[in-house]
Amino acid sequence: MRTLFVILVSFISLLASAQYRETVITDAPFPMNPIKEFIFPDKEFPITKYGAKSDGKSLCTKAFQRAMAACSKAGGGYVVVPKGKWITGAIHFKSNCNLRLDEGAVVEFTDNPKDYLPAVHTTWEGVECYNYSPLVFAYECENVAISGKGRLAPRMAYWKTWFTRPKSHIEATRRLYTWCSELTPMQERQVADTLSRMRPHLIQFNRCKNVLLENFSIRESPFWTIHIYMCNGGIARGLDVYAHGHNNDGIDIDMTKNFLVENCTFDQGDDAVVIKAGRNQDAWRIDCPTENIVIRNCTIKKGHTLLGIGSELSGGIRNVYMTNCTTPGNVLRLYYVKTNHRRGGFVENIWLRGAKVKYCKEVVALATDVVYQWKDFPDYETRLTKIQGLHIEDVQVDSCEKVITLMGDSRLPARDVTIKNLKVGKYTKKFCEVENVENIEL
Predict the structure, then answer these.
(1) Interatomic CA distance for residues 47 and 52, integer angstroms
(2) Fewer CB within 10 A of the end CB, N or C, for the chain?
(3) pTM of the entire structure?
């Protein structure tokens, strides 16, 4: 009888939890389960109730903390940011909380590094470390969201002074590279200091489940704008993202599974939509591939790439599908896979379908020697990237410099590339350059 009672209680609990979820079908060209969308309890926790003031001078960091704690303790709901300008330092999430930015609400983050201490377990360009907190940070949370018609707008005056790479910053990146290569314990990887100049992300969801980003706007970012790191399940929908500083990627999906980006607008100073999977020994240690990612119906006004893969991809990337995206402005490359001989990992089954682009320098590009500023750092280990299954279909480009540039590695050639129904109005330099790629279908 007791066993029957336990089963009945479990069944009722399952039904109760099920009513809080919806699912979104992705229609990808590979097997992929629908993405769960958490429906938050209809309870509100306005930051004004917890001491926030929109007077142009009061710091609201503690009010955000108190509202988030109360919301989570009550079982979840909405941390409400009303119309007005709210100045704050780091906002840290708790599970089952939706940070709702009402129309006319502007969250203005300070540019004082001290407001983003103590340091948190985060990343810098694919390497794990302890650095300044991302301006919005969620760590090991479940059912977390930012929604509404409001805006995130960090102050940038001081962060801009960190855009350059002085000697102290290069030395810090070398230390990070060494720590990663030698698998130095995480607590020893401290870079939260003004000499290292490791700028914080604007938004980082780190090791989370069921993430939702919906309808709000972003104006500028100290570093990567939206970083989805080691997450399982999520949606970015209806975002308006503008950030034209140094390293201002739009959205970086990194060592993450089952994620949808749809109906967003990106206007970036770096890559727009980027799929990553960690760097070198750190990613091999974590062993968490990025897989089952869909990007659809987005507009990229400006950026270095429409769809970028890498160069941090050491954990492996598979099953990525971008469809029906447009670029009314300019991008450097439309479809770009980049890696180097230190990365390892794999890239397989990457799709771009139904894109319309006004201008780009290169339409389809593969590079296996992208090392950037780390070219003078030592090779601790050589691991090549296995690349196969690159697919481009139904793409229209008004004009470009180069159409196809595929440069594989002779030690492990890329293979299985299909390019179908690619229409280019004109190109000014070169149509096709291919090295170390096997089985190409044009």
Answers:
(1) 6
(2) N
(3) 0.95
